[in-house]
Amino acid sequence: MENVYVVIMAGGSGTRFWPLSREAMPKQLLRIEGEETLIQQTMARVTPLIPLNRIFIVTNKNHAEQIRYQLPEIKRENFIIEPLPRNTAAAIGFASAHIYHHNPDAVMAVLSADHVIKERDRFLDVLRDAIKVAGKDFLVTIGLKPTRPETGYGYIEAGELIEVRSQKSEVRSQQQEARRKKQEVRNEKMETGSDKSDITVYSVKRFVEKPDAERAAVYLKEGNFYWNSGMFVWKAGRILEEIGDYMPVLSKGLREIASAIGKEDETEVTENAFTKFELISIDYGVMEKSARVAVVPADFGWSDVGSWTALDEISAIDPGGNVIMGNVIDIDSRSSIIYATDRLVATIGLKDMVVVDTDDATLVCRKDRAQDVKKIVEDLKRRGSEEYITHTTVIRPWGTFTLLEKGERYKIKRIMVNPGERLSYQMHYHRSEHWVVVSGTAKVTRGEEVFFINSNESTYIPMETRHRLENPGKIPLQIIEVQNGEYLGEDDIVRFEDEYGRE
Predict the structure, then answer these.
(1) Among 152, 311, 161, 168, which Cα is nearest to 230's?
(2) Is 185 exposed, middle or buried (0-12, 13-18, 19+ CB in 10 A)?
(3) Contacts of 282 (CB under 8 A, 6+ apart)
């Protein structure tokens, strides 16, 4: 496994999980199931197999800060930052170029940051099998055995059985035997798992778009269709060759990026290349065209948590068939999902409904319309509404801030700084700030001054004045901040020093 790398794709927005997920806090950064966020769960799954120095995170500039906060064990140089969103073909190609630069013999597993997998040991067994198959120059995709006629996933139709002898390290086709025993072998393998010496792997006949309910039922009955998990394993060099065969513009740009890695113009070259890349998935761009694609069947309690109805699969269900989370009082509801945060949500007699309440937005819909939540997010974007961008409470490496009120030329926040932490040494061009300490002791740097303010005391930070707030105490520091100015956006900040490596 010394040549094996893991690439975690963490640039998605998770629009179907609004209002809990937002553009600034997407699904992979949320605690949806268990005590860990989804990206923390992904990391915990792979670290028993792959060391930290060979795990890379592909994300964008906006999400990198929060991911670093959640995964402090991952070094900064192991973040691969996309300058522009260009779908998975560009993101995977970009990561492959970096991995190949590190190690031309690398085999890389591409995993999503926002999946739930219940059976970690079985997942690792499948990953080991896929790595062995990828070592034979296959582009391997992991196909999940369907458990229902699901219309929300793409499908993979398996072709002929390919036998991989792990003891002799050879691959040979078993087409005639497969035609005769294909269904028998498949059923046996899915029930008992791969044996000690062989790996069950099939050629891929075709990739299928998300079907309607009737077609999905046919796929389930036929038995040789698998859910497309979006998890892949291949040699970094091999996928770059395939991109060269089928996506010449992307391939040319990746070569330019590779030649600039570690040089002064790397950022400029990367940004220029990304402006030319298509918005296309790796499935459309390469996988559907390549003759070297194989699927390894799997069954390890997987969910992509693609919408609110996925909670039925991964969460505890009460006697009425409901998933109830948070501050909820429910009477006589059936088969519903009710999610609340701090505010009390009371429900009576619901059936097949989804109710999700956050500080600034509430979603109510039928379960069979849960996939349409993305349409609400699209409408919020068109309106320019902040409710699709961020929550009222925003997590920072030093603590949190909560928006309490805003109006023309003013904004009021509650800021909580953890003991021993401090904000960046910074300045604002367009706003001044008043700070009132509610609890704790604040150490304030204002220009050349350094002083302390205690509970029920305040200070003023003029516009264009360098300043810093820190908590030298043992208890959380809580202040009320009143901003005043012509522009109050979060991007009006110039950082001169920062403890957390932010720009």
Answers:
(1) 152
(2) middle
(3) 88, 89, 92, 232
User: CA angle 116-26-213, nearest 5°?
Assistant: 55
Cis (ω within 30 of 0) for the bond into 419? no
Tokens of 88: 């998975």
Per-residue model confidence (pLDDT) at position 166: 52
The pLDDT tens digits of the residues spanning 258-307 come to 999 999 999 999 999 999 999 999 999 999 999 999 999 999 999 988 88
Q: Virtual CA dihedral for 79, 83, 87, 89, nearest 10 degrees? A: -70
pLDDT tens readout for residues 365-404 = 999 999 899 999 999 999 988 898 888 988 888 999 999 9
Instruction: Kindly tell me the burial class for residue 15, based on how many C-beta atoms sit within 10 Å of its own C-beta (0-12, 13-18, 19 or more).
Output: buried
Strands 477-485 and 410-417: antiparallel
DSSP per position, 85-98: --HHHHHHHHHHHH
Classify 169 in phi/psi space as left (phi over 0), alpha (psi -120 to 50) or beta: left
Q: Measured between alpha carbons, how far is 225 from 203 in angstroms, rounded to an integer?
A: 12
